[in-house]
Amino acid sequence: MNKQAPKARPAPAKVPGIYKVDSVRDVAESLNLPNLPDAVASALASDVEYRIQQVVEEAARFMRHAKRTTLTTADIDQALRVLNIEPLYGHFPHNPPAFRRALPFPQMQTAGSVYFVEDEEIEFDRVIREEKISMPKGVSWTAHWLAVEGVQPLIPENPPAAPREIDPDSAAAKTSTANGVSGSVFPLTPPSSDRPSPIQSGKQTQQQNVLVKQTLSRELQLYYTRLTSSLLPPTSDPAKRTAALASLRHDAGLSPLLSYLVHWVGEGVVNTLRGGSQTETDGKLLEVYLDVIAALLDNQTLGVEPYLHQILPSVFSILLYSSLPPSNAIHLRTTAAQILAHLLTHYSMTYPGLPTKIVKTLIVGLIDNKKSRATHEGAIRGLMAIGKEALRQGLVNRSGARTVGEKCMPGESSQLVELVMDGLKLIHPPSAHPVPLDPNSSADSELIEKLHATLGDFFAERVVSDAEWARGILSDEASVL
């Protein structure tokens, strides 16, 4: 029995999807891909429709978990992020877009419905009348001192201190009963014949616009006045001065007074050096100021680091000043140089740029031809106190000895010349049995020329007599400062 051949089933008709093939062709043409095959366009349309359905399903999950019945653009964005697709930009859930349906085109009846986002109509008159809003500055960061040892610096970042209303009559009465110490206005300097009284200083401070004050106890104010009065010559007693310096060197409760003492020293140095021609009394004053700085630096309980930028100008002013009293000049410059060495020993690790700043300042005072001989002397003493390599950097590498020798007369034997020679001996000690350089030897003649170029003719003639000393001065390598 013959079996009948099975009937061929007709191929199922393809049901067009939501995303049309024509849309795929339009996108392809916009990307410069004309004549896209029908099979490829249909496959792409099916894939796009699948992706859209996947995104909508994920967004619906976010909607259901949020206990909502309205799908928002935020749900779509979350769904795109979950599917590792770049989210959409331009639509936010707090500002949902409003779509309007466009009117049908008579020329294209089969185009279907077209929707668009309606733009807001803005009137130019209203825009012109509205006040322009300026954009604020961006966020920035900066650093400043809120307080240094209990003292609030007078800078724009810090709020100004609230002014205190002071009655001049009551202030004068309190001042007279407290042995010249005011309870509300603290003088930075003790009263004297050429300085205003505490009452006058209080009136002057009231006239200032902004004033940063620190409330000190009556005991500290009295201590400050007695301390400064006992330190200043010629009225002070040597025993009281020694006791005051010992108190500054060892007392642990002077932190509130530190800023006032530093200011008092700086103001005193400036006023003493301002006159130009110095007397023996001025020299004693400068000695007291240097002793006060040294005592404050020796006190281990005081935080002197924030005040180094105020202490250094006073030390440099005394060390490099051109007209110090002759009887006190050597002692003043030696003490100032020792203070610089103390600062480098104790604070060079805290402030890495401090050695470079100090050495450069001293070298400038040494190699500048316009500076006086006294300034050169102070610079050499400062470099000698710092160390051998700093002295080599100034006298040899930067030709400081040649600068000094150009100002010396032939055969001169002065204190400055002896100081330079001591510096050269510190750089490299002379030999016990000196042998002079031989000009007839090519090596020695080359060394003599180098000596004249580095040290100058004046000091080169004094070094030529010792060949080993000359080679040591020029051959040793100096560390970079």
TrEMBL record:
InterPro entries: ARM-type_fold, Histone-fold, TAF6, TAF6_C, TAF6_C_sf, TAF_TATA-bd_Histone-like_dom. It is found in: Nucleus. Residues 17-81 form the TATA box binding protein associated factor (TAF) histone-like fold domain. Residues 156-210 are annotated as: Disordered. Keywords: Nucleus, Transcription, Transcription regulation. One of its GO terms (molecular function) is protein heterodimerization activity. Its main location: nucleus. Residues 173-182, 191-210 have a biased composition (Polar residues). The keyword Lipid metabolism does not apply. GO terms for biological process: chromatin organization; RNA polymerase II preinitiation complex assembly. One of its GO terms (cellular component) is transcription factor TFIID complex. It comes from the Eukaryota. Belongs to the TAF6 family. This is TBP-associated factor 6. It comes from Dichomitus squalens.
